[in-house]
Amino acid sequence: MTIRAGCPACKQPVECPPDLAGQVMPCPGCGQRMRVPGTPPVLVARVAEEGRHVGLIDTEGDDNPFADLARDEAPVDPAGPPPAGVAKDVVGEPLRAFASSGQGWFILIGVGLLLVGVLLLGVALTTRTIRLVPAAGCVAVLLGGALVYFGVTMMGRRVVVCEKGFADCGPLGSSACGWGQVRSIHQTVIRVFNGEAYSHTHHEYAVVLEDGKALSYDNAFDDVGALGRAIQRGVARAKLPQAVADLEAGRAVEFADLRISRSGIGHGGESLRWDEVGAIDAKNDVLVITRRSGGEAWASVEVPRIPNVALFSQVVGHA
């Protein structure tokens, strides 16, 4: 049975033999390198095993991104039919939809600023006496226009997470992306306090596709934390087989400043053997690697710098 894929560059449908699942091949039409969906058959059993270093990563704490990624999701209603214009063979069956909200406020504030800007420019044209009025009017018009544009483009926007990818749907059109077409996802998750009292959690997820297109999701989306976790997990499932193959072949898997290999973990020009690693912990978006001997910090990296942190935690487990 062949595997059906789509080239991210020329959009041509491509049929691939099953033994190429999870591998990178050139598109027969345009030559663009593309990853074939699926898991390599020889790696299925290996990926399913629990790795040797799973226990090194701390998954406890409210401000720990690894604990957030390990959270079980509550059951939700089905997402409904696939969005219009989205190829079902690319993303599979819809699982859950996440809608944006609060755009009306941006539009109202933007319209208000536009009116103030026009009024100030009118005053400047009629009086010609106050030099700062034209500048203030121009700033108000530009800022108001930007807010209105943001509100309009976000109004009605929703992200539908599916079995094999996700679809980003908005007033300007819909686009579908398979998990294998995502190059990286960076996350920023910070708990915000008002004095000593917890206020809210700020979420921001920056997704970069293989074709260079960038997408971002933040607190403007309902339950954006669940959306970010779903994308992180989907990308990790797609990339884990190749990462395990690299480990088996003796190659290191890189995550920005960090390198994971069979022998240990590297940071910058230094490395630490696995038997020297005490724990890998993350608090309030800072990852800290401690030595087993003495418990002192060996390296620290800001979590937003690390691409695909869900994949990172799984690769550590399989190293």
Topology diagram in text:
Layout: E1 3-6, E2 13-16, E3 24-26, E4 33-35, H1 44-48, H2 65-69, H3 88-91, E5 94-99, H4 103-127, H5 132-154, E6 158-162, E7 165-170, E8 173-178, E9 182-194, E10 197-209, E11 214-218, H6 224-248, E12 253-255, E13 258-260, E14 264-267, E15 270-273, E16 277-283, E17 286-291, E18 297-302, H7 309-318
Antiparallel strand pairs: 1-2, 3-4, 5-6, 6-7, 7-8, 9-10, 10-11, 12-13, 13-14, 14-15, 16-17, 17-18
Helix pairs in contact: 4-5, 6-7
Compact overview of the structure:
This protein has 319 residues and is α+β, with helices and mostly antiparallel strands. Among the domains are: 1-38; 103-154. The chain contains 7 helices and 18 strands.
Task: Give a written overview of the molecule.
- This protein has 319 residues and is of the alpha+beta class.
- Among the domains are: 1-38; 103-154.
- Helices cover 30% and strands 32% of the residues.
- It has 7 helices and 18 strands.
- It has helices at residues 44-48, 65-69, 88-91, 103-127, 132-154, 224-248, 309-318, and strands spanning 3-6, 13-16, 24-26, 33-35, 94-99, 158-162, 165-170, 173-178, 182-194, 197-209, 214-218, 253-255, 258-260, 264-267, 270-273, 277-283, 286-291, 297-302.
- The protein has a 4-stranded antiparallel sheet with strand order 5-6-7-8, covered by helices on one side. It has a 4-stranded antiparallel sheet with strand order 12-13-14-15. Strands 9-10-11 form a 3-stranded antiparallel sheet, covered by helices on one side.
- Strand 10 (197-209) and strand 11 (214-218) form a beta hairpin.
- Helix 6 packs parallel to helix 7 (309-318).
- The protein starts with a strand and ends with a helix.
- Mean pLDDT is 78; it is low at 41-51 and 75-79.
